Amino acid sequence: MARNAKSATPVALTIAGSDNSAGAGIQADLKSFSHFGVYGLTAITCVVAEIPGKVTAIQPIKPEIVGEQIALSLEAFPVGAVKTGMLYSTAIIEEVASNLDLYEGEIVVDPVMVATSGDPLLKKSAIAAYESLLLGRATLVTPNLDELAMLSGRETNSLDKMKDAGRALVERYGTAFLLKGGHLRGRTAIDFLATEDGFEEFAAPFVPNVETHGTGCTYSSAIAANLAKGLSLSKAVAAAKEYITAAIRQSHRWDGVTALRHFPR
Q: What is the CATH number of the domain that holds 121?
């Protein structure tokens, strides 16, 4: 089926890891897609044993199987946007990039490198593959503060330094970057959409004392969903910012563990 085929329901594909706690990864992406009325497809790259604050095991999927999932999805469905999350290794990144070579839709790259817990989710050797194969072809890249620092080689511990790092990356790769300031923990969670035209600010009240496991996955997949629906990049980010703020504010809480509410009331 041609990718530009008419469809009553927009379609998005997530290429990411599986999180058994369902707050991040493929599970969070599918919930976010559904919230926005988008049909979600998946290509699983890794199976991760994790809960908020802890990663205990990672089992990567064979790269050729990752590629086959992507190829079949793009062949059969009118995919309006692709979101990449945890890719883990150079071999998987190469397979993803190869299968996206002829894809002409929107691509949101969430360069998952480190979990909120601090556990590594990407082999160090794979960072170069991200830089050479994926970042330049993305519609938008959505690093967290640590990933922004790793990619830019700059400090990111203030809004001004975030913008300096983002400006350098936009110039280097010629694509847009979403600079997320929530982890700076001010009274306001301020993000910047950095493009060749400058910076657009998106702000919401900071929500304290909430486990942030899965916020990056959820935010980026919400953007991809809205791009699949045909929104502009600016409007897609605005809708996703409102959504992630509500998902954090209304988080599920049990004894000793919390999780984002992907279908906020």
A: 3.40.1190.20
**217 catalytic per annotation:** yes
The answer to whether residue 229 is catalytic is no
Check 31, 83, 214, 241 and give the catalytic one: 214
Which pTM value belongs to this model? 0.94
Q: Identify the CA nearest to 14 among candidates 40, 48, 36, 35.
A: 40
Check if 215 is active-site. Answer: yes
Beta strands in 61-138 (DSSP E): 79-84, 106-109
Examine the residue annotation and report whether 186 is marked as an active-site residue of this protein. Answer: no
Domain that holds residue 243: 11-251
Could you state, in chain order, the average pLDDT of each consecutive group of 10 residues for the chain (265 residues)?
61 97 96 98 96 91 98 97 95 96 96 73 83 94 92 91 95 96 80 96 88 91 98 98 95 90 94
Is residue 212 annotated as part of the catalytic site, yes or no? yes
Strands 106-109 and 140-141: parallel
Per the domain annotation, does 54 fall within a domain? yes
